[in-house]
Amino acid sequence: MLPTDNGDRKVVVDSLGVGIATGAYGVSFGAVATASGLDVWQACVLSLLVFTGASQFAFVGVVAAGGAPLAGTATAVLLGSRNAFYGVALSPRLQVHGWRRLLTAHLVIDESTAMGLGQPDARRTRLAFRVTGVTIFVLWNLMTLVGAVAGEALGDPRAYGLDAAVGAAFLALLWPRLTAWPQRLVAVVGAGAAVGLVPLTAAGVPVILGGTVAVVVGMLLTGPRTAEEAP
Amino acid sequence: MSALWVGVLAAAAGCYALKVAGLSVPRALVEHPVAERVAALIPVGLLAALVAVQVLADGRSLTVDARVLALGAAVVLLVVRAPFLVVVFGAAAVAALARLVG
């Protein structure tokens, strides 16, 4: 099964490792989704068709907080916008057209992009991207089903702390992005603005509005300085 | 169709459209420093807002309960570089325990 070329084999093994580790946490999405009031079908359709973890967690998070489903949709799509930028970076190396592009697009997520762009050439980019993307897709969906069925069988999600697991999941997704001060500042502003908006607006709105305010503040505060520092 | 299903399918359509658009648009059109910075900041702002609302909001009021303890546990687990699943279910266990004791 594994390629005979040593470099290729390493790419495949690394991609499988990332794919398995990431796909496994589909179980937490499934459990959280049913704990948030979705049924098993809805949880599985989200993993099959949305297939981008942060957006899926955002959708169920907003719904769990009592927000309108379409507010959940808006949050999910805003979060999914980064996948468009991943696609822009990937397309010169992937070189996919026609129906292949339509299939490939579905696999454009954080992990497949990171593994793909980490390779030295276009051929290994394709290899890493595909192995990572397909592994995650298969496992993520299987584990979502497992988590969703288990979550429904468990009963009251609060007794197991599953409602608290959502915040931890978002923090774990956020954590690796807090690498520098502009990002940390944006995170603090986003959290603060959202909390401030909770008593004032309908559920679901604080997240979108708070997140947007944070991005605007981040752009205003970090823009000129970052531009001057650029070589 | 229920509102929840409409939301699920609309999210699927929107997220997929963005993925296809990324692979399809000419690079020069979006390769702008401002666009790239906004793109990098959007997940940070939204995820931070989601953390805060998820942990502190109870409908339209704010409460401090077991979820805050769970978030503290998540921070500790992230600092010691625990894997994603350990962070998520570790935090859930702390909240469950706190409710059992409290």
Automatic annotation (TrEMBL), chain A:
InterPro entries: Brnchd-chn_aa_trnsp_permease (IPR011606). Keywords: Cell membrane, Membrane, Transmembrane, Transmembrane helix, Transport. Signal peptide: none annotated. Pfam families: AzlC. It is found in: Cell membrane. One of its GO terms (biological process) is L-valine transmembrane transport. It is a multi-pass membrane protein. The chain crosses the membrane at residues 12-34, 127-151, 157-176, 188-221. GO terms for cellular component: plasma membrane. This is Branched-chain amino acid ABC transporter permease. It comes from Nocardioides silvaticus.
UniProtKB/TrEMBL annotation, chain B:
Pfam families: AzlD (PF05437). InterPro entries: Brnchd-chn_aa_trnsp_AzlD. Keywords: Membrane, Transmembrane, Transmembrane helix. It comes from the Bacteria. The chain crosses the membrane at residues 38-57, 69-98. This is Branched-chain amino acid transporter AzlD. It comes from Nocardioides silvaticus. The lineage of its organism: Bacteria, Bacillati, Actinomycetota, Actinomycetes, Propionibacteriales.
